[in-house]
Amino acid sequence: MSALAETVVALESLVGPLNSFRAPGEFGAVAEVRATPGGSEIRYYRPREALNAGIATQLGEMFIQVSSIAAPISRELVCQLGIEMMQSLIDFDPPPPPTEAQLAAAPETATEWAIRAGPDVTGLVMPLEAMGYVGRVRVRLDCLVIEEQRVNCAVQSEEPVGMHFGDAALAESRFNRILPVIDGQPTLGRRVQFTVRYDLAGSAPE
Q1: What is the pLDDT at residue 204?
Q2: How confident is the model at residue 37 (pLDDT cuts 50, 70, 90)?
Q3: For 36-56, what is the mean pLDDT?
Q4: CB–CB of 45/30 below 8 Å?
Q5: pLDDT reported for residue 116
Q6: How far apart (Å, rounded) are the C-alpha atoms in residues 199 and 136?
């Protein structure tokens, strides 16, 4: 049994089965699914030829995620095993993204945040493809302000492409809250555009 499976089985006796699907940082096609005797579900991904990953989650009173990432580096197997426990993710399920027509019809507003997602959220939504990537990431989001000061966004552009950084920026944006009034105008229903920046050269996200 792998270290990931052993950890999941050990947690089952405390929190029950980890069988919820799709954590905020899970993108792409699942390569394989394995079940434990206790009813947990472990999803395995192959984001790159030299990278394997497994994830099990529970979305209940708390959000619990157990994950492992393994990659052969310098002929040695390097494996990272992590356990995340957070308050229930009320922002987990996104609404349908805004259409181009909806965005075009909405008056624009400045970007002034009441709450901005922190490093804990950034770490949670980072795609598996980010492991080993060194460089700057830029994702431009085009959004509508919806209820409770939330923003509902679509990806306008992303660099680099094909690594799910746009998906990660969308997931992170759900944890932001814009000010209810900017320049004397209510922000509800308005359009806001902003750029999400990550520096993956070993520094913290911008």
Answers
A1: 35
A2: very high
A3: 89
A4: yes
A5: 94
A6: 5
What's the rounded Cα separation, in Å, for the pair 147 and 160? 31
d(C-alpha 58, C-alpha 206), whole Å: 29
Among candidate residues 135, 134, 124, the one with its CA nearest the CA of residue 83:
124
Domains and CATH numbers, the chain: 3-87 (no CATH), 100-199 (3.30.2420.10)
3 state SS for the chain: CCHHHHHHHHHHHHHCCCCECCCCCCCCCCCEEEECCCCCEEEEEEEECCEEEEEEEEECCEEEEEEEEEEEECCEEEEEEEEEEEECCCCCCCCCCCCHHHHHHCCECCCCEEECCCHHHHHHHCCHHHCCCCCEEEEEEEEEECHHHCEEEEEEEEECCCCCHHHHHHHHHCCCEECCEECCEECCCCEEEEEEEEECCCCCCC
Residue-level pLDDT at 202: 47
pLDDT tens-digit series, residues 124-137: 899 888 877 889 99
Checking phi first, is residue 38 left (phi over 0); if not, alpha (psi -120 to 50) or beta? alpha
| Token pair of 168 as six digits | 């990660």
How many whole angstroms from its chain centre is CA 189? 25
pLDDT of residue 45 exceeding 80, the answer is yes
